[in-house]
Every structure is written in structure tokens, then in C-alpha cells.
Amino acid sequence: AEEKRSPVILMISEPLQRKYSYFNFKRLIGPIRDMAEESSVPVVLHLDHGKNYESIIEYIDSGLTSIMISGSGDLEKNINRAKEITEIAHKYGVTVEGEAGAIEGEGGLEGKAESKSKQEDIEKSYTGLEEGKKFVNNTGVDSLAVSIGTSHGFFKSKPKINFTLISELAREIEVPLVIHGATGLSVNDYKEIIKRGIVKLNYYTGLITEATEEVKRLLNTRDYISFTELNYKSMQAVNKKAKWLMDVFGSASKG
């Protein structure tokens, strides 16, 4: 991010923490926050897909500067829960991302898994305009994750993004809009999504896959390579991809 002079959001996933429960990710937040505060570009430390109330509060106490509250199926329950957590988070100066509409697939987990979501299921889960407005107006969240055709993981076929819906949501909803499952879209899709009003794009699967593919390449071309070098080379691959994304998303030179 500093090389590209780009603001950046670093996310920790609650589902990933549950998967690797033997390691307490919260212990890393303090040192990472110190580095973020020393950075020459704006850095946000964000909890992705927070579902458990107690865990969300613990992450706030640990020093994260932003949280995302995963929604359930019931809108009223979502609103009541998000409102309560948002009020607490704001007392600590922590921003909150809510969710209206169901974003298919499970976010924040590892692997080059294809999305199992069918296009018709994704379309049924689109964020409704009135649903989104009601959620934002009754919770006080600072941004809203919306369902517009993306899904966590890689797509089995070309995704059908509802660009018209993005424009309608951006016009009527007063907070910044977010999409999850940004891996696998075309450069033109990214540019059109941003043009129509999406402000934050969550991109994970593609980054972790860059690391995996680099490790596979090295193991297939070397008789011996140390774990230290594997780790370093995979980090370089992620770094290269992240810088490319900053150029594509248009955040480069804005930090």
C-alpha cells in the first residue's frame, strides 16, 4: 500500500479464527495496529463476518478500528442486533459495516474452492432497495454490504452482476456500499461497479490463491527449497497481486 500510495483495509475473518481456534488472532492486533499507526498511508483494521456478539466486542476491545456484522435471514433480527452493536462500536470510535441481502457462500475461509451458489439463488438474495434503506436508517451503520450478483469463492461460470441495482442502491442509500466476493470479476466489471457506486471491495480468495500457486510452482521446479524462502516468495506473489488490484480499483496514489 505504501509503494502504491494507496489507503488499505486489512481484514481478519471471524470464520477463519474459528477454523484455526488454536491460535488467538487477537494477540496480533496490538502490534499490527502499532504498525498501521506508523504507516505513511491510511490503514484500517477490520473484522470481517463478525457473527458472535461476545467475539465482536472482544475484537473491538483488542483495537480493531472497523467491524462487519454478518446478518441472519430475518431482517428485523438483523436490524436489532446491528443497532445494538453499532451503538457500542461508535462509543469506541469504531466504524461498522452492516449487511442487507444474503451474500452467497461462506466468507473468509481458505482455499481455491468454487462457489457452490447457483445464479438463481444469488439473484433471489439480491439486496432490496427498501430493505437496504430500512436497515441503514434503523441501525446507524457506517457502510452497507449489498448483494448484487457476487459470491464468495471462484465462480463456476461468468457472474451476472446487476449493475442497475448498484446504481439504484447508491442513489437511495446514504452510506458507502460494499461488495463481498470480488474475486473472479473482470477488470471492466470492477471499473463499472466502482463507477456505479461501490466504495469497498472485499478480495480474499484470489490473494490466497496467488500464494498457493507460487508455492506449487516453486516445489515443482526446485529439488529443495526452505520453508523460509517459500514463505517469502508467496508473500511477494500476494504483494504483486495486491498492487495490481490497487491500480485496477483506483485507490493507488490516493493515500
Overall description:
- This protein is α/β, with parallel strands linked by helices.
- It has a single domain (8-249), classed as TIM Barrel (Alpha-Beta Barrel).
- It is globular, with a radius of gyration of 18 Å.
- The chain has ten helices and seven strands.
- It has helices at residues 14-19, 26-38, 53-62, 75-91, 119-124, 129-139, 163-172, 187-196, 205-221, 227-249, and strands at 8-13, 43-50, 66-69, 95-100, 143-146, 177-179, 198-201.
- The protein starts with 7 loop residues before the first strand and ends in a 6-residue tail after the last helix.
- Helices cover 48% and strands 14% of the residues.
- Helix 4 runs parallel beside helix 6.
- Mean pLDDT is 89; it is low at 107-116.
- Strand 5, helix 7 (163-172) and strand 6 form a beta-alpha-beta unit.
- Strands 1-2-3-4-5-6-7 form a seven-stranded parallel β-sheet.
Keywords:
7-stranded parallel beta sheet; alpha/beta; TIM Barrel; 10 helices; 255 residues
Concise description?
The protein has 255 residues and is an alpha/beta fold. 48% of the residues lie in helices and 14% in strands.
Largest sheet: 7 strands, parallel
Please identify the structural class as seen in this structure. Answer: alpha/beta
Share in β-strands: 5-15%
Number of domains: 1
Give the fraction of residues assigned to helices.
Answer: 40-55%
CATH superfamily: Aldolase class I
Would you tell me which CATH topology applies?
Answer: TIM Barrel
Please report the first level of CATH classification, the CATH class.
Alpha Beta
Distinct helical segment count:
10
CATH architecture: Alpha-Beta Barrel
Order of helices and strands: EHHEHEHEHHEHEHEHH
Radius of gyration: 18 Å
Mean pLDDT: 89
> Termini, distance in Å?
8 Å
| Adjacency order of strands in the biggest sheet | 1-2-3-4-5-6-7
Dominant shape: globular
Can you count the beta strands? Answer: 7
Low-confidence stretches: 107-116
